[in-house]
Amino acid sequence: MRQGAVAFLAGLLFAVGLGVSGMTQPSRVIGFLDVAGGWDPSLAFVMAAAVSVHFLAYRALRWRRRAGGVDAAGSARAPRFPLLADRADVPTRTDIDARLVAGAALFGVGWGLAGYCPGPALVSLATGSSAVLAFVAAMAAGMAIERFASARARAEMSEQTTE
User: Fold this and answer.
1) For residue 61, how far is the Cα from the chain centroid?
2) How far apart are CA 76 and CA 78, in angstroms?
3) By C-alpha distance, which of 37, 12, 15 is closest to 124?
4) What is the DSSP annotation of 46-98?
5) Helical axes 98-114 vs 130-162, angle rounded to 10°
6) Each residue's pLDDT tens digit, 22-45
7) Of 93, 89, 67, residue with least CA distance to 79
8) From residue 162, how far is each of 99, 150, 153, 158 by CA, in Å?
9) pTM as predicted
């Protein structure tokens, strides 16, 4: 219950932050991305703030692990970190592959064309705009197609290794 309440409050804070910062306004986002035209640099401050928060949280997580706050098995020796989960899932891959580049390119093109990325689009659903509904539907369809294609590729690879 407590974890759900904190997740809800974090999501609410995130939604309010997106609205206050203007990230839910496609014209503002496209203005930010239009560096060759009438560039609007205001969203750079939003991004800088988001990156700073993530940077500090990630550094704190790494510091806690090195300082002995969590042992290799994830058992707490000091106050637990993270507070509301059994463990912190930290990405371990550092390679850049074709799938990552293609996904980033697709995300960037979609963001540039529509002026929405997933978070602001979900927040903007509250407006009931048909453009937002179409974007979220297309986004959900793309996610479903990717999930299906990935599962199929994994199944084919599994079949090849068992032969």
Assistant:
1) 18
2) 6
3) 15
4) HHHHHHHHHHHHHHHHHHHHHTTSB-TT--BSSS-SSSSSS-----------H
5) 170
6) 889 998 889 888 888 888 888 889
7) 67
8) 25, 18, 14, 6
9) 0.73
